[in-house]
Amino acid sequence: MQTDTTGQNYRESQNYRESQNYREAMEFLANRENYERSGARGVKSFQLDSMRNLLRRLGDPQSAFPIVHIAGTKGKGSTAAMISAMACEQGYRVGLYTSPHLHHVEERFVVDGKPCTELQLADLLWEVRPFVEAMDRESGRSPTYFEVTTAVAMLYFAQQDVDLAVLEVGMGGRLDSTNVCDPVLTIITSISLDHTRELGDTLPLIAQEKAGIIKRGVPVISGVVESAARDVIREQSQESDAVLWEMDRDFEVARYTPPSAGTMQSTFDFKSQRSPLKTRTGLKLGLLGRHQVSNAALALAAVDLLAAEGWKWEPPALERGLSRAQCCGRIELISRHPFVVIDAAHNVASIRALLDTLEQLKIKQPRILVFASSIDKDLEGMLRLLVPRFDHLILTRYPESSRASDPAVLGQIVDRVVGEGDGINVTWEVREDPSTAWRAAVDRAGETGSICVTGSFFIAAHMRPLAHQADPSPLAHAKPGECKPVGFAI
């Protein structure tokens, strides 16, 4: 998501962050229970009654605009960004709600490609606050951080008179705060093991939670390919009389060409097997990674189904949207010298996608990994994939969260992986402070090596500003939080 807060606007933005009005509004939000930082206590931590209650008090703003609702273990943020980008290029006024944010909470609330301003967010929070505090007094359950931000998103999009809102599920689907909406289209991108404590420890159990966003009579697009999980989506769609459109049955990616050395853009073909979906060839994709073409296919299927309901789409607008769509912190190329990629991958499936992309990009030695993650993630599963692919590991932790895993524990896992492996030649060290970890990585890589930062959104967010400050090359962004497309000549 790209912003235009540069020069004087950026300075004014920073000044307003220091104002009492903004600080008090953010303090109110920060004091809400935040499962993103603390971790949820199982799926029963979530419920929809509180969310419905809050929105009802606000006048049900979510009913003021059509919604595309997106769930999935991975890919939902990228798919949402691509739909939003194509709709913006077409000239629609589009709201995009995603989570978590990398640097500032304003990044969650985007209209026409621009996050809301600090002033807008403070005003929205002050508008929501009396209703939240009334619920604190009257009910046995206070609205959480995510419920408040979801309410803010709905209110903001209604006030901005958007033509379309694209909502990304926070966690799961069935009991996620976004699931109070009445969408025109639902999308389930993929299903793999993640958030197992909250959603279940098998793919069918997780699929049941994701399938909870399916609404009666509302079309469903599915990128789920694993058979047991796919069967759950099919069954729920049938029970809900919701027409189902499936990847590799109704549409597919027919051809994929990896990024070229000059532009870092891949190309692909979208092949339709079922009307009204339309076959398209030679599409350019701004987001890095083979896995992103599947997300792009879901986004294209979405615009085709919307077209069948009267939405207007021109091919050049769709092509521009796909080539310009961006997601900060998702296999994001920061610099070439050294080669720096930052990725928020935090489960085994996402790590596989990251490694596949790094192989395509042919990263050079020495290959340095900076890794930090959360205690509730599959740490061993991720590290078993990562350790053999790097020359040196720097294990650290992200600050200000009780969920951060102990880097010494990560080191024990690395030792176990090396001991059980055959010919794995890797060294590792612990750096408790992530800023020190970054400096150590730069020293190790030099100008010709490669650095990959991954393991969580939190470590990606912490490292991006450090990488931008250290890199004066054209690949560096002007300010943390501004995400420049990767599809440009370097």
Decide which structural class fits the backbone: alpha/beta
Instruction: Give the C-alpha Rg.
Output: 22 Å
Percent of residues in beta strands?
15-25%
Instruction: Count up the helices.
Output: 17
Q: Number of DSSP strands?
A: 17
Strand order of the largest sheet: 4-3-2-5-1-6-7-8
CATH topology of the largest domain: UDP-N-acetylmuramoyl-L-alanine:D-glutamate ligase
Give unreliable regions as ranges. Answer: 1-8, 474-482, 484-490
Describe the main β-sheet briefly.
8 strands, mixed
The CATH homology group name of the largest domain: Mur-like, catalytic domain
Number of domains: 2
CATH secondary-structure class of the largest domain: Alpha Beta
CATH architecture name of the largest domain:
3-Layer(aba) Sandwich
* Arithmetic mean of pLDDT: 87
Distance between the termini: 21 Å
Per the principal axes of the C-alpha atoms, what is the gross shape?
globular
Describe this structure in words.
The chain has 490 residues and is of the alpha/beta class. The protein has two domains: 318 residues, Mur-like, catalytic domain (UDP-N-acetylmuramoyl-L-alanine:D-glutamate ligase, 3-Layer(aba) Sandwich), CATH 3.40.1190.10; 139 residues, Protein-Tyrosine Phosphatase, Chain A (Alpha-Beta Complex), CATH 3.90.190.20. Helices cover 41% and strands 16% of the residues. It has 17 helices and 17 strands. Strands 4-3-2-5-1-6-7-8 form an eight-stranded mixed sheet, sandwiched between helices. A six-stranded mixed sheet has the order 12-13-17-14-15-16. Strand 7, helix 10 and strand 8 form a beta-alpha-beta unit. Helix 4 packs parallel to helix 7. The longest helix is centred in the first third of the chain and has 21 residues. The radius of gyration is 22 Å and the shape is globular. The N terminus and C terminus are likely disordered.
